[in-house]
Amino acid sequence: MNKTSLALAITLATIANQAVAAGFIEDSKASLDLRNFYFNQDTRNQSAPSSREWGQGFILNVQSGFTEGTVGVGVDAIGLLGVRLDGGGRSGKAGIDRTPGTLFPLDSGNARHDYGKVGATAKARLSRTELRIGTLLPRLPVVTYNDGRLLPQLFQGGQITSQEVDGLTLTAGKLEHTKTRSSTEDISLRIAGAARPTGSPASTPLADSNAFYFAGGDYKLTKDLTAQYYYGNLEDFYRQHFLGLVHNWGLGGGNLKSDLRYFHSGSDGRNGSVAGRAQGYRSSGYWAAGDSKAGEVDNRTWSALFTYGHSGHELSAGYQQVSGDSAFPFLNQGDGSTAYLITDRQIGKFLSAGERTWLVGYGYDFGKLGVPGLKASVVYLSGDNIDSAERDRKEWERDFRLDYTLQAGALKGLGLSWRNASFRSNAAADLDENRLIVSYNLPLL
């Protein structure tokens, strides 16, 4: 039993003895999220089959209150189930025009009929400080869980959050494993570029780590200005510092939001040595042939995004620059992941070594025209200057999104979403993608 599981078991035992305490039951909440998800991705410039799958997801969230006393304790639980409605063919079969593996785990080349996963989180609260051990869904600049498919990604670890000082939120913790969005197994952590030891057979696992440490905080300098600093360390891969500044400014009857971000990432442990990188502790990126630093994390990424909203209209413009020999490093197990970048969009992430990306976007809330709940947006990104042996490597993406939420009636809150994207590159597959999502939250407690 690992340390996290042991601590969780001890805390659950303590809670069992105090479950009758006021607050634990009275403040409990439970809800069931229903998510019907259709996914269609078409490869345009290659003979590869398309990916088309359809499924129904169920996400049960149960959150207890805290027991009374100086230290209150409680427990949360999450249960996830995905049911296949259309499996998308068979992977690897000759002559197929579509292949599965996007929404569901594969079993002998076929998408499973269903898959599920569960998690539990023990929690304790003292004053305005809360400790959580077990299943976590972090949303921080240095680690963010992915929720871009039928079921969300889950992490396993411990986290402490403190708000003892007004305007200041401090967070620290450690992650050990993850269940990716279309997997039921706990797997260890790595980054893009991680490999097998040099000369090892294909059956050898990729290099990974069971320790990601993080710490940092948000501080509201004024009611409209928030400063951020966070640190992340994936043992034997990389260390990362993040600085952020978010400002809101009333302007011309509307609001101008400025979002400034800077990451500085370097090697850690085995990634910092030739011998360690030969063991597979590598990063993706571009290095000249024979460079002894090949595979070492070396990255600086900064970005600025400005968004102006007025009378239902929202106009945005941004720029991102990736510097250094490696691509931007973040937790990436190869089965869906999220990077805290303004360029992490429906298909691409625009985070290759040397890449420069600009983006523009426009959105409109039709509530201003008497259709509340209807929103539309479009974003265009263009990236170039990507470090590569091929000259003039570039890519672009266009995303369109239409959302409607029912405002009244028996199905009030039912959400309908259409997300359409096109991605083009002179060094990767050209993709067109559609996602159709119907979602509904059913309160149980």
Molecular structure report:
The protein has two helices and 22 strands. The protein has helices at residues 3-18, 274-278; strands spanning 29-43, 51-63, 71-86, 106-107, 110-111, 114-126, 129-136, 139-140, 143-144, 154-162, 168-179, 212-222, 225-234, 238-251, 254-267, 298-310, 313-323, 356-365, 374-384, 395-405, 415-425, 431-443. The chain is mainly beta and 445 residues long. The strands form three sheets. It has an 18-stranded antiparallel β-barrel. Strands 4-5 form a two-stranded antiparallel sheet. Strands 8-9 form a two-stranded antiparallel ribbon. β8 and β9 form a beta hairpin.
Any descriptors?
mainly beta, 18-stranded antiparallel barrel, two-stranded antiparallel ribbon, globular
Sequence stretches where pLDDT stays below 50 over 5 or more residues: none
Tally of helical runs: 2
Mean pLDDT figure: 92
Give the helix/strand class: mainly beta
Oligomeric state of the chains present here: single chain
Gross morphology is globular
- C-alpha Rg (nearest Å): 23 Å
| Helix amount | under 10%
Termini gap: 33 Å
Compressed to H and E, one letter per element, the order equals: HEEEEEEEEEEEEEEEHEEEEEEE
Question: What's a quick, concise take on this entry?
Answer:
The protein is mainly beta. It has 2 helices and 22 strands. The two termini are 33 Å apart.
Itemize the secondary structure elements and their pairings:
Blueprint: H1 3-18, E1 29-43, E2 51-63, E3 71-86, E4 106-107, E5 110-111, E6 114-126, E7 129-136, E8 139-140, E9 143-144, E10 154-162, E11 168-179, E12 212-222, E13 225-234, E14 238-251, E15 254-267, H2 274-278, E16 298-310, E17 313-323, E18 356-365, E19 374-384, E20 395-405, E21 415-425, E22 431-443
Antiparallel strand pairs: 1-2, 1-22, 2-3, 3-6, 4-5, 6-7, 7-10, 8-9, 10-11, 11-12, 12-13, 13-14, 14-15, 15-16, 16-17, 17-18, 18-19, 19-20, 20-21, 21-22
